[in-house]
Write the C-alpha cells for this entry.
Amino acid sequence: MNVLLILIPVSVFLGGLGLLACIWTLRHGQYEDLEGDAARILLDEKQEDRTAKPEKDG
Amino acid sequence: MTVLASPAACPACVSGAATAAVAADAAGHVLHLALPSIHCAGCIAGVERALAGAPGVRAARVNLGRRRVRIVTDPDIGADPALRALSAAGFEAHELDNAALGPAGDTDGRRLLARVAVAGFAMMNVMALSVAVWSGAGEATRALFHWVSAAIALPALAFAAQPFFASAWGALRAARLNMDVPIALAIALAAATSLHETLFEAGADTWFDAALALTFFLLAGRYLDHRARAAARSAAAELTALEMPRAVRLEDGARRSVGVADLRPGDRIALAPGARIPVDGVTEGSATIDRSALTGEADPVRIDADGIICAGEVVLGAPLVVRATARAEDSTLRRLAALVEIAETGRHRYTGLADRAARLYAPLVHGLAAMALIGWWVATGDLHRAIAVATATLIITCPCALGLAVPAVTASLTGRLFRQGVLLKSETALERLAEIDCVLLDKTGTLTTGALTLPKLEEAHARVALALAQGSAHPAARAIADALADRDPAPVTSLREVPGEGVHGLWDGAPVFLGRGETGTELRLPDRRIPLPLEETLRPGAADMVADLKALGCEVRMVSGDSTVRAGALAACLGIARIHANIRPEGKAALVESLRASGQRVLMVGDGLNDTAALAAAHASLAPATALDAARVASDGVLLSGDLGAVATTLRIARMAHRRIRQNLGIAAGYNAIAIPIALAGFATPLAAAAAMSASSLCVVTNAVRR
C-alpha cells in the first residue's frame, strides 16, 4: 500500500490545482456576465481587440 | 487566500492586455452606460465596435447580463462622445450615475462563491478518501486516511463555514434561534468528534465528509439565493443611477452643467419644461409646476415669482430659473428619503418561515441528541459510545434539507419574477407578499400615468383648442396644450385672456373661446359647445389587475390625495369599491396602520413621496419603475413593466413560493422522522448520512425549481 504515499499527495495536489484555477477565475470577474460570455463565443476574434478585461471595480 | 494571476494558470489569457487596461483605468475616467435594448452577440459586437471608433474612448466592455457597458474615456470628456457614437450606430444608451450604482463588483457574492469552491474541493477529496474507508480499508490505511481528511477538512471548514458560525453567534447573542444555530452546532460537533477519533484512533466513525457536504450544499443554496436577489438589486440601483443628478447652473450668463451635489444656496439653476427640480429654492418669474409626486394632487399648481418650490416637483410649461435655497442633501426630497430609511428598519423584525421552523426544530433535535447522550451513557456506561450516537443524531438530522428549503425556493421564484420585470429587493419579501389580503393602490402615478388626456376631438376643433390653449399659462390650458402637442395650431387671431374666465380669439373671423363653462372646461365654437373634461390616463392592465386581485381574495382599496369626485370616478370605472380620497401623506401611513390594527396584511402600491411613509409601514410594498427614487427605496419591489398586471402575478407567485416552502419543510420533516429513530438506535453510519443528506437535498431543490 506504499503507493498511497504517492497517490494521495498527487490527488490532493491536482484537486488543489483545480481549486486555485477556480479562485483565479473568480478574482478575474469571470462570473460577472455569464450571459454575455456565452454570447461572446459567437464573435469573431478581430472584434475583441479593443475590449478591456473584465472589471474588478465599479 | 491570495492567489495571484500567474500566466501559468491560464496561458491562453493575455495578461499583458489586463495590465494595459488597468493602467488606462488609472489615467482615464470610468463610466457606465445603460443599454436597455441589447440582447445578443451581434449587439455586443456592434456596441463595442461603435465605441472603439468614438473619440476619447479608450476601452469598452459590454455586460450583457446587466445590459450595461463600462467604458474608460480620456479625463474630463464625459459620456457625450460615447453616447453620440452609440446613437449613430442605432443603440439606445443612457449615462448611469456611478455613485448611485455603488460598487458594481458583487463582493459578497464573490466571497460566497469562493467559499463554495473551497467547500466543494474539500468535500470531493474527503469523500474519495471516505469511500475507501467505508469499503473496508485496513487499520493503518484507515488511520492515514483519517489524518489526511482532517488536514483537508479542518482548514476548509474554518474558512467555508464562517457565514454559519457568524450568523449563529449573532442570533445566540440576541437570545434568538435561527436556522444557522443547529447548522453551526452540527458542523462544529462533527468536526470536533471526528478530530477526537482521528487523534486517539478510538475506533468510531469520523464525519468530516458529512460536515463538508452539509457546508457545501447550504453554501450553494445560499449563493444561488444571493445571486437572484443581487440581480434584482442591481437593476433597481440602475433605475436610480439613470436619473443623472446634473443641473444647468447659470454663471454670469453662461450655462454650465454641474453635478446636483455641487449646487450651493444662491446658485441660479435653469430648468427645462419637464425637468424635476433638483434642490429646494425660490422661482424667478411665475411658473406652473406638478406637485403630484409630493402631494398626490393631479392638477398642476401655478406659483408666482419668488414662490417657494421643493425638490422633486416637476416644471411644466415654460422654462424656469430657480434660485437654490438649500443644498441637495438638505432638500426636502433627501430629508424624506432619510425618514423612510428609519421607518424601513421596522420591517426587518419580520421572522421568516425558516426561522420559525428553526424555533421548533432546534430544541427538538438538540433535546433528542442530549437524551441520546444521557440514555446511552446510563444504559451502557460507555461515554465514548454515547457521544458517538449523539453526534450521529445531530448530523443525520442536520438541517441540510431544512436549510435549503427556503433559499432554493426564493432563489428560483425571485429569478422567475425578475424575468417578468418584477425586482424584489428584500429577503423576506416573497413570504410577506404571500400573506397579503388587502391591496392599497395609490391613484396618481400608480393607477394612472400622470398624463392627462382629452376626449376625442375632431381634427379642426383640436387645432383650434390648441391655438387657444397656447394663449394662456393657466395650468388647465397648459395641460390641454400638452395633450394636443402633436398637432399644428389653427390660425386663431386676436387672442385675449380674461383671468378667471378663459381665452377668447377669432378663427376664420368667428369668435371662439376656451375656458370655464357651466360644467367645467369647454371649447366654444361658433356653432357648438364642446366640453373638455381632462381625464387621467389609466395605466395598462389596471382594470384587469383589480379583477385579478379580487379573484385572489384580496380586498382592493384606492387611496389618493386628490378630490373625492375625481378619485371616485376613476375607482368606479376600475371596479374599486372602497376609496380614501383627500388623504394627506401622514394620513396614508395612518390608514395603513389602522388596517393593520384591524388584522389585515396590507400591500401598498405607490409611486410618490407622499406614499413613502405608507410604503414603509405596509406589510409589503411595490412601486412602479417611474416612481420617485425615495418611493422605490421604501418598497420591497419595483415593477419594471408599465403593465399593472404584474402586481397580481407577483402575489400569485409569492403564494406559490409560500406553498413550495411549506412542502419543502414537510419533505425535510418527513426525512427526519425516518432518520431520527435510526440514529437514536445507534445504527447511523457516515455512509447512510451522506446518502440521505444528498437525497433529501435533491428532493427539496427539485421541488423548488419545478414549474
Observations:
- Chain A touches chain B through 41 residues (CB under 8 Å).
